[in-house]
Description:
The chain is α/β, with parallel strands linked by helices. The protein has ten helices and nine strands.
Amino acid sequence: MSTVDRLRAAGCVFAEEEAALLEEAAASAEHLEQLVTQRVEGLPLEHVVGWAEFCGRRITITKGVFVPRHRTELLVDLATDLNPELVVDLCCGSGAIGAVLQHRLPKATVYAADIDPAAVACARKNLTNVFEGDLFDALPQDIRGHIDVVVANVPYVPTDDIRFMPPEARDFEARVALNGGPDGLDVLRRVAAQAAHWLKPGGHLMSETSSRQAHGALAAFTDAGLNARVVTSEDATAIVGSPPK
């Protein structure tokens, strides 16, 4: 059975494209067999080949780390449009957001942070200035009050909904990168509550959410004293807020 046929039999919708990527990543016929077996067994393609395409760039991805979704590119575009000098990629996972922003804004200083040691190790393969810890506590204190933009792609899946996620995410990505608490907004509320202390005057906090959670996410921002709005694209929803001037 060919690689394409094996992938198709395993339920891979884009079997031809995946086969080409696996063949590209393989160092030998034996290595290709290992990669195909991993994919057939359900390991996300990005974990198998070691990278994900995000905003037109290849981002290194290691096993167990959250795979960046294309819907998150909305946050990158919003942050880019603000042309910030100091950016923080909070709950950074692989550091995909920070890495793309560093490429787009070469004069900017980019920091990233995550609570998951595996994510931090992965992010350090994609950009510098990556810190391990719980939200803003991970960051250097000397940037407090000086940040232009915080991009916080926080976990926002309600705890009871994780079981309904595709197996590739549910079984192979770290639970801490998915679990947003009972209504999916626990981490977002914590970020919003602290943001004003870290942003400079006129700074912005932005976070991804789902369309059905947009009202609650907006409330999390406004309850924290931020002036906030909902921004949508064809397939993504984000909340953008700033402290009052």
